[in-house]
């Protein structure tokens, strides 16, 4: 405690010096302190916080403080922030709803755009930091509560529908997984392996000469040439580099890269390795050849940190007095064909070639964070106990918003005007049995699978025949491959099949 108070005196002295040079003053009455303990499992937080003073005034100590729109709490649990953010969003949901009317009066797609463009970003604000705790059950509950009203609007589902089913129907990643992905993305970008830390505007700086690449003619080019290629397939990704002088092969090199490394990045990396290996000498001519136009465009237009780093090397060779040329060539040129063979060999014979760790890009980090979020979402959807009726038909999570009609959503969730549903939620005096002769409960599943009421049987028959004609699965299953036509076909069935109120009439 004493140590902290003494440390504060030193910090405060530094703050005062800074303020004095900037002609500023601190207001003790507006200053608050929050003590975030260094976290040790099982260790209790100190009862009394240290007393920190500004001049003669003791600063107030609080349980939490708001800084740049994020609430920092004493235990760094972020629960207070999640609660506060959720409350703000629910308030704006009510306002939007007041304007849009009870049924939201808005197309699901437009509402989803409002959700993606305004609601979700507001909820995710600061998730780079607090997302570390996003899967905490209390935070998860706050986040889901915040967006529930919007998901009900997007899906037009019954209010009894579970959050997990709403998320799948609306194609919205559960917010806690999204927040965790943002945190992971932010954290990974801080690692040393990441080459994209420096962010550069696209296109060359106006003060620098524009760099171009050309298509290589069939004849041999003067000087030293490096032919580079990448290969991707079974066994991962590999690159091949061939050095020639006057048409004669001087050196070859094959390297394996980490699994799943994107091809165009591997092509760029191969060029980079060749370029970095060169010591420029006065009067020298160096040609770097690839069969990837994408890699050359990335390089000459300075797309990303990796391209920028390679270009710096090109500039170094030129400063050393040599001439550098970048070429595109098809594999009709012997050098490219050879580089391609070496890359393939490295990929297929991993024991014969060394492995190299190519730098990770921002896009790769983001892609990986998204992949993890989707996998967690899928797992939650498979293993949960809510939304099982929906899971039976829509087994795979997907971020697409399908054009399900309101009646389709009723059948997909089981929450709709079915006697069995009304019985389950005590909304009817009846026994919940269907009007047909089977004596079964009138549920969505019964309507879709085995109801023997004449009209329903006929509607079901027509739906199945149409579904078979379009080559879709029977019984109906929704996957990433499900076409819009199948969705419309299901919507049509839901229009034709009679539900509770229509059966009464
Ligand atoms: Zn029936």
How would you describe the overall organization of this protein?
With 505 residues, the chain is α/β, with parallel strands linked by helices. It folds into 4 domains: 2-62, no CATH class; 78-194 and 360-401, no CATH class; 213-359, Nucleotidyltransferase, domain 5 (2-Layer Sandwich), CATH 3.30.420; 402-504, no CATH class. 47% of the residues lie in helices and 12% in strands. It contains 19 helices and 12 strands. The strands form 4 sheets. Strands 7-12-11-8-9-10 form a 6-stranded mixed β-sheet. A two-stranded parallel ribbon has the order 1-4. The chain has a two-stranded antiparallel ribbon with strand order 2-3. Helix 2 (79-100) packs parallel to helix 5 and helix 17 (454-469) runs antiparallel to helix 18 (484-496). The longest helix is centred in the N-terminal third of the chain and has 22 residues, at 79-100. 33% of the residues are buried. Residues 434, 436, 438, 440, 446, 451-453 line the site of zinc ion. Zinc ion binds next to loops. This is RNase H type-1 domain-containing protein. GO terms for molecular function: nucleic acid binding. InterPro entries: RNaseH-like_sf (IPR012337), RNaseH_sf (IPR036397).
């Amino acid at each position: 405690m004493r140590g902290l108070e003494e440390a504060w005196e030193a910090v405060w002295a530094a703050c005062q010096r800074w303020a004095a040079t900037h002609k500023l003053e601190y207001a003790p009455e507006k200053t608050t302190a929050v003590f975030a303990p260094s976290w040790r499992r099982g260790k209790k937080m100190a009862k009394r916080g240290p007393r920190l003073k500004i001049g003669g005034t003791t600063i107030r100590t609080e349980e939490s403080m708001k800084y740049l729109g994020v609430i920092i709490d004493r235990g760094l649990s972020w629960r207070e922030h999640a609660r506060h953010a959720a409350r703000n969003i629910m308030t704006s949901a009510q306002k939007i709803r007041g304007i849009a009317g009870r049924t939201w009066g808005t197309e699901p797609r437009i509402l989803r755009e409002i959700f993606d463009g305004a609601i979700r970003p507001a909820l995710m604000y600061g998730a780079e930091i607090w997302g570390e705790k996003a899967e905490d059950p209390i935070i998860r509950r706050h986040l889901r509560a915040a967006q529930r009203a919007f998901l009900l609007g997007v899906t037009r589902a019954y209010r009894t529908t579970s959050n997990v089913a709403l998320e799948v129907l609306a194609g919205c990643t559960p917010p806690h997984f999204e927040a965790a992905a943002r945190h992971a993305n932010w954290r990974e970008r801080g690692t040393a392996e990441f080459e994209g830390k420096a962010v550069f505007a696209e296109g060359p700086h106006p003060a620098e000469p524009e760099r171009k690449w050309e298509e290589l003619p069939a004849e041999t080019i003067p000087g030293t040439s490096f032919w580079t290629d990448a290969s991707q397939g079974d066994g991962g990704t590999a690159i091949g580099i061939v050095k020639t002088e006057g048409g004669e092969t001087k050196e070859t090199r094959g390297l394996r890269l980490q699994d799943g490394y994107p091809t165009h990045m591997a092509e760029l990396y191969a060029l980079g390795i060749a370029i970095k290996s060169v010591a420029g000498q006065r009067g020298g001519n160096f040609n770097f050849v690839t069969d990837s136009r994408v890699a050359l465009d990335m390089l000459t237009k300075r797309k990303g940190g990796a391209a920028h780093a390679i270009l710096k090397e090109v500039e170094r060779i030129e400063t050393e007095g040599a001439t550098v040329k970048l070429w595109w060539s098809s594999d009709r040129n012997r050098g490219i064909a050879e580089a391609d063979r070496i890359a393939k060999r490295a990929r297929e014979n991993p024991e014969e070639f060394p492995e190299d760790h190519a730098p990770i890009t921002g896009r790769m980090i983001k892609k990986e964070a998204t992949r993890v979020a989707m996998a967690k979402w899928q797992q939650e959807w498979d293993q949960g106990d809510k939304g099982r009726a929906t899971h039976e038909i829509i087994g795979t999570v997907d971020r697409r918003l399908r054009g399900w009609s309101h009646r389709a959503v009723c059948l997909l969730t089981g929450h709709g005007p079915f006697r069995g549903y009304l019985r389950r939620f005590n909304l009817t005096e009846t026994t919940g049995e269907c009007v047909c002769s089977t004596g079964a409960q009138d549920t969505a599943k019964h309507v879709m699978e085995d109801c023997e009421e004449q009209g329903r049987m006929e509607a079901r028959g027509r739906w199945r025949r149409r579904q078979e004609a379009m080559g879709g699965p029977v019984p109906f299953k929704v996957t990433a491959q499900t076409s819009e036509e199948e969705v419309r076909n299901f919507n049509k069935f839901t229009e034709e099949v009679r539900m509770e109120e229509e059966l009464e009439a």
